[in-house]
Amino acid sequence: MSQVDLVIRGARVVSDHQIIEASVAIDGESIVAVGHDDLMPPAREVLQADGMYLLPGAIDSHVHFRDPGYPHKETWKTGSAAAACGGVTTVFEMPNTNPPTGTVDALNLKLKAAESSYVDFGIHGLLGDDTVGHLEELIEAGVTSFKAFVGNTFGNLPSPSDGALLEGFEKLAPLGIRTVVHAENSSILARRQKRMQAEGRIDALAHLAARPVVAEIEAIGRVLTLAEWTGARVHIAHHSAADSLFLIREAKRRGVDVTVETCPQYLLLNTDHADHLGGILRLNPPIREARHNQPLWDAMMDGTIDMIATDHAPHAPEEKTRANIWECDCGFPGIETQMALMLTEVNRERATLMDYVRWSSVNPAKAWGIYGTKGVITPGAHADIAVVDMNKSGILSENELQSISKISPWDGRAVKGYPIHTLLRGRFVMRNGKLVTEAAGWGRSVKGIQAMPKAKPQNTEHYTSAILKTPEGVRPTAEPTR
Ligand code: DOR
Ligand code: ZN
User: Fold this and answer.
1) pLDDT 10s digits, 320-341
2) What three-state secondary structure class fits 196?
């Protein structure tokens, strides 16, 4: 073999089912060989990585990079720098920017902002009453997937009516495109919040009281009903509660194509932390009582929950620390700390590195139709690699974050296990723990490699399109009468 760009030697390569000692050869943007060091081609550069683990770069299905609209909270450049420094090589970005990503013009603004990205990306377009008529145009113009804010959150985008959601699912089902759903019942949230406010409650726990678990149970049930009826692929964002897992289990058993993410904050934090963290902990869905943590872990282990995402939701520190909980913005940054937090749990033997790779890379890659090119270290795949030191210990510090939003509930937390280099398509975007600033703009959309397998639409005779085509008095799919 002729000379290649880079060989990484001395490390162990991790997939979702094995860990092997192997060298990895990279040429251009791709992996060209994985195997015994003796078999590696000559290389222009060698990275000696003795004792390290090579993980497929993490794929974060849920980030908010705020641009266009709120560049004081985050930009594509700072958000994606945080990704690179967290071992994350692909992100899927949310549409609650300003303008929201529900028109081709707004999408183009976002794609322009994303030109400064350090990491590859997909864009979730907005599915709502105003956009449901334009989904095909948005797909054509570059969105990879959609997001429906069934539960209200930052940006105050109106929740889609059930009718619009059904119609959106009918349109997206035959295309195989997956829709992310923020599954909380908006009407319950709005009414409860008003009542809390009328009672004069301004403490952090009032936020939790305003967003009870039943709001999540109801919304997940409704969304799964519509998904099963139409055959649409759906993805439950930031699953937070133990009590709604039975719905996912049952839907998966019935063959609904639903994928589910949870986030480190729902696995590792609970209301016991509320006293000292206060408004920082305000996010949607809320941090719940301790009884939810372990069932979420169990659901990750048994496959009910498919993946780890972060809901990286940066806000300025002053927007997070107001005395009145209702005036604190919801969410906090997480993309840069996810891997260290989860590797720490691996070191505590709560999961294996293979489990982690399944949650952080393999399953998200499969959900968004990019598996094979991403999510795996194998010849032919993109060279998206997090080089991980499982023995490196440290203390997470919000001041060291790349994110503009230097306020984090993880500040001061001891971790063991860090990404130390991140490669995106063969190029270092983080090296020795430092951002490679020249790599800004190396990221690009994954739209070109995305292949969503055809889905099986259900109940097509009841689709809006079928109904609209019905000539007066004739049901097109009815059995002909003999
Ligand atoms: O806490 C949250 N913040 N939850 C969301 O769903 C949205 C996010 C944001 O955009 O700030
Ligand atoms: Zn979010």
Assistant:
1) 999 999 999 999 999 999 999 9
2) helix
Report d(CA 216, CA 294) in Å as an integer. Answer: 18
CA of 39 to the centre of ligand 2 (A): 45
Six token digits for residue 260: 């589910």
Ligand 1 atom 4 nearest Cα = 284
Which ligand has an atom closest to residue 313 CA? Answer: 1
Amino acid at 114: A
In terms of phi and psi (left: phi > 0; alpha: psi -120 to 50; beta: otherwise), the region of 275 is alpha
pTM: 0.96
Nearest 5°: CA angle at 445, between 439 and 451? 140
pLDDT at 474 exceeding the cut of 90: no
How far apart (Å, rounded) are the C-alpha atoms in residues 165 and 180?
A: 12
Residue nearest to atom 3 of ligand 1 (CA): 331
Contact 121, 443 (CB under 8 A): yes
φ/ψ (deg, to 5) at 105: -60, -45
- Please state whether the peptide bond connecting residue 285 to the residue before it is cis, i.e. omega within 30 degrees of 0: yes
Q: Strand 88-93 to strand 58-63: parallel, antiparallel, or no bridges (unpaired)?
A: parallel
Query: Which ligand is located closest to the Cα atom of residue 182?
Result: 1
H or E element, residue 21: strand 19-21
Ligand 1 neighbours (beta carbon < 6 A): 64, 96, 153-154, 182, 283-284, 311, 313, 330-331
User: Whose structure tokens read 């699912």?
Assistant: 169
Q: Which atom of ligand 1 is nearest to the CA of 314?
A: 11
